[in-house]
Automatic annotation (TrEMBL):
<feature type="domain" description="Alpha-carbonic anhydrase">
    <location>
        <begin position="25"/>
        <end position="246"/>
    </location>
</feature>
<keyword id="KW-0732">Signal</keyword>
<dbReference type="InterPro" id="IPR036398">
    <property type="entry name" value="CA_dom_sf"/>
</dbReference>
<keyword id="KW-0862">Zinc</keyword>
<dbReference type="GO" id="GO:0008270">
    <property type="term" value="F:zinc ion binding"/>
</dbReference>
<dbReference type="InterPro" id="IPR041891">
    <property type="entry name" value="Alpha_CA_prokaryot-like"/>
</dbReference>
<dbReference type="GO" id="GO:0004089">
    <property type="term" value="F:carbonate dehydratase activity"/>
</dbReference>
<keyword id="KW-0456">Lyase</keyword>
<protein>
    <recommendedName>
        <fullName>carbonic anhydrase</fullName>
        <ecNumber>4.2.1.1</ecNumber>
    </recommendedName>
</protein>
<keyword id="KW-0479">Metal-binding</keyword>
<dbReference type="InterPro" id="IPR001148">
    <property type="entry name" value="CA_dom"/>
</dbReference>
<comment type="similarity">
    <text>Belongs to the alpha-carbonic anhydrase family.</text>
</comment>
<dbReference type="Pfam" id="PF00194">
    <property type="entry name" value="Carb_anhydrase"/>
</dbReference>
<dbReference type="InterPro" id="IPR023561">
    <property type="entry name" value="Carbonic_anhydrase_a-class"/>
</dbReference>
<feature type="signal peptide">
    <location>
        <begin position="1"/>
        <end position="21"/>
    </location>
</feature>
């Protein structure tokens, strides 16, 4: 019963695109409502402190293995809208396509950004990180993370940043785009079992974090930082979990 409740909470958190939903307690990335206090803000946030499989983590001391590749079936012409949800800039879609992972299908629902990166690789963080969030029929999630660094050009990232609403609650259309253009060309990655990195921190997530970063323009990164200068949860203990590396 508890696991079904946590999955339902995670699904609700995923689907919500507004930071102003009446049922969502206010939380931030600093001060009295910041990460150190999330567990105190609501009963269903308690796992943010009590959980043992929290994210993000430092991807270090990984075990060389052969975790299953992700089979991407994303829609190259998916239609996207961009919303400022009060915590990040998020692109939402209703026709994003799917991925297959370990025999399970997940639907691409949205992608969003954090600065600096939430995960670290061998103790080092990138300027930003993108999270591509997928949901299975049972409510469980598969998130693909990609580090973002300056030194290149990415048309979709630039389009999202150029249309990113500066005020929370605003939403604009981006149009049709292929989200795969914001992923590295190769599947070298880390995988582990973890959680949402935002309240309610539900431990229902299979994480795949790509090793290679995507390169974007410094100007586009600064556009995001002008809206959200810091929206990354601190690193969490890995505990007894294994990080698999491919």
């Amino acid at each position: 019963m508890k696991s079904r409740f946590l999955i339902a909470v995670a699904a609700a958190a995923l689907i919500s695109t507004s930071a102003f939903a009446a049922s969502s307690p206010h939380w931030t990335y600093e001060g009295a409502e910041g990460p150190a206090h999330w567990a105190d803000l609501a009963k269903n946030f308690e796992v943010c402190e009590a959980g043992h499989e929290q994210s993000p983590v430092d991807l270090t001391h990984a075990v060389k293995a052969e975790p299953a590749d992700i089979m991407f079936h994303w829609n190259k012409d998916a239609h996207w809208t961009v919303v400022n949800n009060g915590h990040t800039i998020q692109a939402n879609t209703d026709d994003g396509g799917t991925i297959d992972l370990d025999g399970k299908s997940y639907v691409l629902r949205q992608f969003h950004f954090h600065t600096p990166s939430e995960h670290a690789i061998d103790g080092k963080k990138a300027p930003m990180e993108a999270h591509f969030v997928h949901q299975a029929e049972d409510g469980t999630l598969a998130v693909v993370g990609a580090m973002i660094e300056p030194g290149g050009e990415n048309d979709l990232f630039r389009a999202v940043m150029d249309k990113a609403p500066p005020k929370a609650g605003e939403e604009v259309k981006v149009g049709a785009a292929d989200a795969a253009t914001m992923l590295p060309d190769t599947q070298h990655f880390f995988r582990y079992e973890g959680s949402l990195t935002t309240p309610p921190c539900s431990e229902t997530v299979v994480w795949t974090v790509m090793k290679e970063p995507i390169k974007v323009s410094e100007a586009s990164i600064k556009e995001f930082e002008a809206i959200y200068a810091a929206n990354a949860r601190p690193l969490q203990p890995i505990g007894r979990r294994f990080i698999l590396e491919k």
